[in-house]
Amino acid sequence: MAVEKADKKTIGITPANEKTLTALAGAGKFVTDIDAAKFAMALAVSKDIGSGATEGAGTKWNIGSFDNDGTLKSTIEALYPEEGAPYRLIEHLINEGLHLMSTSDGLLPDVAGAILTAADQAK
Known about the structure:
Layout: E1 10-11, H1 15-26, H2 33-46, E2 61-62, H3 63-66, H4 71-79, H5 86-101, H6 111-122
């Protein structure tokens, strides 16, 4: 039987995704880097990214700061009922969403394009 990892007390991103997060937050697209991270998480959910865990993520936010009212935890528990560690999954989805938005050409991630593509796919 596999041992389930305890849920996270802090949420982080990998060094590879830090650049994308910094670009999103610094470009004025989001008020805070937490808002940018939540957008990345939502993008990953819309792309049907499944359960997983991100290795190598540093400490960025305490869950009390990131999800002060527990709404994200409740949402993830509803969307992924088999997941026993919702904050671990939130961290994974953030990192996967940032990876989806990363660019190798030095341009800012295309937030509008991500929204429009998700809307088109929902039709």
